[in-house]
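cron nightly-structures :: item 1 of 1
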Amino acid sequence: MSHFYLTTPIYYVNDKPHLGTAYSTINADVLARYHRLFGDTVKFLTGTDEHGQKVQQAAEKRGLTPQAHCDELSAAFQEVWRRLNIDYDIFFRTTAPFHKAAVQNILQELFAKGEIYPDTYEGWYCVSDETFYTEKELVNGKTPGGKDVTKVTEKNYFFRMSKYQKALIEHIEKNPGFIRPENRRNEVLGFLRQPLADLCISRPKARLSWGIEIPFDKDYVNYVWFDALLNYTNAVGLGQPARATEFKEWWSDGYVCHMLGKDILVHHAIYWPTMLMAMGVKLPDVIFAHGWVLNRDNEKMSKSKGSVMNTDEMVKFVGLDPLRYFLVREIHLGNDGPVAHELIASRVNSDLANNLGNLLSRTTNLIDKFFGGKAPASPTPNDDRVRRLIDRAVSTAPLVRSAIEDFQPSAAIDHVIQLLNDTNKFLEEKAPWKTAKTDLAGAGADLYIALEILRIAGGLLSPVMPEKMSALLATIGIDETRWSDLTTWGVIAKGAPVRKAEPLFPRIELPP
C-alpha cells in the first residue's frame, strides 16, 4: 500500500466536540496507527469546517466575529484530540489562506471550462444542514431528517453535477469497494437512480457573508460544502502548482481513504466525486460511512438536541485507553452502537481487567517469584497444546492485518482477545504456580509462552491503546515493536528483565 492517506470529516465549529465526533476520529486514529505499524507511509488528516451560515449564526449568538469564534472552537477541537491521543499529521482549517486561494483557483478553472454557470434558483433551504431540498425531498414540510426549511428564491451559481451522474454510477458499479459498507453503497446507487440536479455552489453576500468569495463574482461567497469538500485534496497540494509533486505522491499515486458519518454520505459520495471528476482528479479509493454513537435512548448523539456525552467525563470514568478500546471494539465499524456507563464497565472488566490484565499480572508475578524477575527459557514445542498455541500466536498478526485492511477493527481486536482467552485457559490447565515446586523448567516454559503472547498481544493492541500497551511492553522488557516481530516466536531472550506488573486495568465500578 505504501502511501496511505486517511481523512476524517472536518467538523463544524458550531459547538465543541463530543463523544459522537470523537468516535469517528478515534477509529481513524486507530486505522492510521495500524498502517504505520504495518510499515506504510501514512498521512492522517482531521480538522474543522469553518464557513457557512451555521457558523456565522453561532458566532453572532456569542457576540464574536466569525473568525474569533472559529479560532476558539478550532483550538477546542485540537485540545480534545490531544487529550484523546489522536496522532494526526494534518489539522486542516478551511479559513487557512492557502485553502481559500486554492478554492478560488479551482472555482475559476471550473467556471472557465463551463462547469459552473449562473441561474435563478427557487427551493427549500435548511440552515442546519446548509443544504437546498426539492419539494419531492421534503417529508411533511421538513427535511428527511425532520429539520425546518425556508423557501428561497435567488440568483446563484451552479455546478453541472448532473453531467457526471452516469459516470459516477459506472464507477461505483465497477469498484464495489469504493463506497463501504455495502448497504451504504446501495443507498447511494438508489439515490443516483433518480434524476440528479445541478448543485448550487454559491450564496449571495447579502444573505451570507461568511465564506470564500467567488472569484468571478464579488457579490457571492462559495457554498460551504463545496469549499469544505475540497479540503481533502487541497491539504496535499491540489490547486497549488508548487505542490504538484506532493499531490501526485499522496493523492494520484497513493491509497486514499475517507471516513465519515453516514448522515453526510450523499455530500461525500455524490457531490465530492462529481466535483473531482469535473477537475479531472482521481476519486478516493474508499469512502467509508460509519454508523452513529447512540445515547441510552438509542438516539444519535446531537449537539442541537443536547443529547451528547462529554469526552472528558467519559475518560474520567473509565480512562483514556479503555474508552478508545470500548468504542472500537464494541461498535462494529459501519453499524450504530449504544454507549452507556454499564456497557463500558462490562466490556472493560471482561476483556481488559479479567483477561489481558489478569494474564499480565499472573505471568509477571510468577516470573518474579520463581525466576527472580528474569524471563525463563523458551519451551521445546513437543506438546500438541504448546504447538497449537504457538501457531495460533504467530498467525494472529496476519489475521489482524487482514481485518484492518478490510475496515473491521472490532474483528481485529477479537482475534487478539481469542488468543488471550486461549492463553489464560492454557495457564489454568498447566498451573505453573503448582508445577514450579516440582518441575521448575516446565513451569518456566509455560510462563515463557504467556510472556511471548503478551508481547504479541501488546504490539497488536498498541494502535488501540497506545499508552497502556506501551506500559505493558515496558514491563516485559520490550521498548520497540516491529511488525515482523509480531509474526515471530521467541523474541524475548532467556534472562531478559521482567518486572512485576502494576494493575494495568483496575476493575470499573459503577456508581451506586
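cron nightly-structures :: done
The domain at 3-290 is CATH 3.40.50.620 (Rossmann fold).
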